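Quick one:
INPUT:
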């Protein structure tokens, strides 16, 4: 009987482990559905979703720069509408997580993807009712999520799948059937009334969202004075330390009813502290309110503040690119087309270089020899010694010549994606 007893005990222990699960019960104005959350496979993503749903994580209302409170708790998703519903053949999804209700905002911070090729449950969309993070490119996750209504394999490798709907699929179907306007927004709002998190089993009970590598938000004390230049500029004095992002909001409305989000500022690892932030206002309309928020990030936030001093290499369907951004001297490139052994070289127009840095991603855009405009979305994934590596989405505009004799022409209005991106590497210039 002893071997049988041991086997029974092992089976019971195994059953206990398999039952350990984290659920999100979503009550909407259209009905109730439940999602099972993959907290073991995608812990950071689930921690973010759970803490926002329960109000145990602070978030920024990007409509006015107000920081949420923890006591009393302010659950992020309560009262939020599904702002996007797409019910096309082969592409069905419902999306929420935007306070503005138009998909242009988030919680005031970002965090990286958790897609793992060795764990299909984190990226596969071969079944309907998958719960995944919406984004604008690699490593731009925040608060927006979507649920699929059918298999959409074109999304694989682009969005972290962190759960699935396990009951109430008919409610998802009903939301998919809602009448929408030209922007895919339901004509009659469908609202998330409340999300309740249920923890079953020891593993789920011991899962602590606060232990995950997510940023913390705070409001720094500040003073203000007139900036030395230009005119109509206020200087706001406060400290911003390394590996942090400043979110700034200002109002020129006497009643402070209308607020504008200003340009954010990422301060990567650095030996110095930033001490001020200048804001220029329209003549005759001085700033009536200013709200700064500091998002403090963990050491895995790798984005450099500038491209200066780096070489950047990447490969896509067009070929292999190598870009050089020295501190001094001419910026240049080398390009080897796919299927060719001959490389093309040229210069980068420094005046066209635009670089917008965020903690886990960056947008870079520049012009090559007046022949191409390169637009790169860089998602920084890891650092090996002093070299940076990650994923890239490449978009290109090719100059169209209308007069071969004079070289006159134009750039088209829209970028095209090359596709076939195989990642990028950045190496410091010695």
């Amino acid at each position: 009987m002893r071997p049988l007893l041991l086997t029974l005990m092992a089976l019971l222990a195994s059953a206990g482990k398999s039952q350990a699960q984290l659920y999100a019960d979503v009550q909407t104005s259209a009905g109730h559905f439940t999602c099972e959350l993959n907290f073991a496979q995608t812990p950071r993503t689930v921690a973010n979703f759970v803490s926002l749903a329960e109000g145990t994580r602070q978030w920024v209302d990007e409509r006015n720069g107000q920081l949420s409170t923890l006591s009393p708790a302010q659950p992020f998703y309560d009262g939020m509408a599904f702002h996007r519903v797409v019910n096309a053949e082969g592409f069905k999804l419902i999306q929420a997580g935007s306070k503005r209700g138009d998909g242009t905002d988030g919680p005031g911070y970002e965090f990286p993807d958790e897609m793992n090729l060795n764990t299909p449950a984190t990226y596969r969309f071969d079944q309907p009712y998958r719960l995944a993070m919406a984004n604008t490119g690699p490593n731009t996750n925040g608060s927006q999520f979507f649920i699929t209504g059918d298999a959409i394999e074109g999304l694989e490798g682009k969005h972290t799948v962190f759960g699935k709907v396990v009951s109430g699929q008919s409610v998802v179907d009903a939301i998919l059937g809602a009448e929408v306007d030209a922007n895919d927004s339901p004509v009659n709002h469908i609202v998330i009334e409340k999300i309740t998190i249920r923890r079953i089993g020891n593993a789920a009970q011991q899962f602590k969202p606060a232990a995950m590598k997510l940023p913390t938000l705070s409001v720094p004390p500040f003073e203000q004075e007139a900036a030395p230049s230009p005119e109509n500029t206020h200087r706001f004095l406060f400290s911003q330390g390394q590996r942090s992002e400043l979110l700034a909001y200002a109002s020129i409305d006497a009643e402070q009813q209308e607020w504008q989000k200003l340009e954010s500022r990422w301060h990567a690892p650095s030996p110095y502290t930033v001490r001020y932030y200048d804001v220029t206002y329209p003549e005759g309309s001085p700033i009536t309110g200013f709200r700064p928020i500091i998002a403090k990030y963990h050491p895995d936030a790798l984005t450099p503040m500038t491209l200066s001093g780096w070489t950047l290499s990447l490969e896509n369907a067009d070929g292999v690119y190598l870009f050089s951004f020295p501190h001094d001297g001419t910026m240049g490139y080398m390009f080897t087309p796919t299927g060719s052994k001959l490389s093309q070289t040229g210069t980068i127009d420094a005046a066209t270089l635009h670089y917008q840095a965020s903690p886990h991603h960056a947008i870079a855009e520049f012009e090559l020899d007046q022949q191409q405009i390169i637009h790169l979305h860089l998602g920084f994934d890891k650092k090996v010694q002093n070299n940076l590596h990650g994923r890239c989405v490449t978009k290109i505009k090719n100059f169209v010549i209308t007069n071969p004799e004079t070289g006159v022409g134009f750039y088209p209005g829209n970028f095209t994606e090359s596709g076939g991106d195989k990642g990028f590497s950045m190496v410091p210039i010695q």
